[in-house]
């Protein structure tokens, strides 16, 4: 269990913050070599330092890239293979929430922006990583969907469309690639306390966002936010060989909220 990722290469997008950072730390603790991708280069340095605090020998490359740019995606995949020679696991995770609004008021540009990062970005990642994994004959992929990808949340047209799309891509590619020894799953986190959720609460009330947060989690069966490291444990398991037979499916991590009537 402790060394599930010894000699394994794990590629993570959105690795500079939140769920991507927590997952990088977890797999590095278990011996992984890391290729970390984010739009924000400074945040990648922060993740690198946090990883080295807990796993000082971690071999790691940092790649600043926009996942919504197909050429940049092709490049981060090529750079990873050039440096490490393979990709064992891919956490296809970078995403944004976008401005909340009623559907009729939802900005066209905003819709396109959210879809281009959350859906196109995940598709480009799958397209380029799957080519590598099919040739090598192994690999596991975890796409980040959301509870907003399996339920209606409201005020999030772009997010809902893109995250439901991520679930569709997961099912479609999982069916295609199982025969090549590759498993593809999605996670559907509920509210996990990361900078994204903090930003979301601040959209509702910038002054009293912590109070808004308390009310927000009241309907949750566990009455709290999830922690990034809890998602890190799940992602590590799903990327490990222990989860190879879990394919083309979506795993919620939300305290049970998405099953509540
Ligand atoms: N935190 C939650 O409650 C929650 C719930 C459900 C789903 N998610 C999903 O989890 C993923 C991670 O979210 P988080 O909460 O860690 O958010 P976060 O904002 O803390 O981290 C996201 C990271 O992605 C990077 N990023 C954003 N756009 C990018 C782009 N175009 N190219 C490359 N990198 C980019 C950001 O710079 C940031 O470092 C997202 O896909 C999000 O939709 C989060």
From TrEMBL:
PANTHER family: DEHYDROGENASES, SHORT CHAIN, ESTRADIOL 17-BETA-DEHYDROGENASE 8-RELATED
Single GO biological process annotation from the record: bile acid metabolic process
Gene3D superfamilies: NAD(P)-binding Rossmann-like Domain
Annotated protein name in UniProt: NAD(P)-dependent dehydrogenase (Short-subunit alcohol dehydrogenase family)
Family: Belongs to the short-chain dehydrogenases/reductases (SDR) family.
A Pfam short name: adh_short_C2
MF terms in GO: oxidoreductase activity
Keyword terms, alphabetized: Oxidoreductase
Keyword Oxidoreductase: yes
InterPro entries, sorted: NAD(P)-bd_dom_sf, SDR_fam
């Amino acid at each position: 269990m402790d060394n599930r990722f010894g000699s394994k290469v794990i590629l993570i997008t959105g690795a500079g913050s939140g769920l991507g950072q927590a997952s990088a730390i977890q797999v590095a603790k278990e011996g992984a070599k890391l290729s970390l991708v984010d739009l924000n280069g400074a945040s990648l340095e922060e993740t690198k330092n946090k990883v080295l605090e807990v796993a000082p020998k971690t071999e790691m490359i940092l790649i600043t890239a926009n996942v919504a740019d197909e050429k940049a995606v092709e490049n981060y995949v090529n750079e990873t293979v050039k440096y490490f020679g393979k990709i064992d696991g891919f956490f296809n995770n970078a995403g944004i929430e976008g401005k909340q609004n009623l559907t009729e008021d939802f900005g066209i540009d905003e819709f396109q922006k959210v879809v281009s990062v959350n859906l196109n970005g995940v598709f480009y990642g799958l397209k380029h990583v799957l080519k590598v994994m099919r040739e090598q004959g192994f690999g596991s992929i975890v796409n980040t969907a959301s509870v907003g990808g399996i339920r209606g949340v409201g005020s999030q047209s772009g997010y809902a469309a893109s995250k439901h799309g991520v679930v569709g891509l997961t099912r479609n590619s999982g069916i295609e690639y199982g025969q090549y020894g590759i498993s593809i799953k999605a996670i559907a986190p509920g509210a996990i306390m990361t900078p994204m959720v903090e930003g979301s609460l601040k959209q509702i009330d910038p002054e009293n966002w912590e109070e808004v947060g308390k009310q927000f989690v009241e309907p949750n069966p566990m009455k709290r936010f999830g922690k990034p490291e809890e998602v890190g444990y799940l992602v590590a398991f799903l990327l490990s060989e222990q989860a190879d037979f879990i394919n083309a499916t979506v795993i919620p991590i939300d305290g049970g909220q998405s099953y509540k009537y």
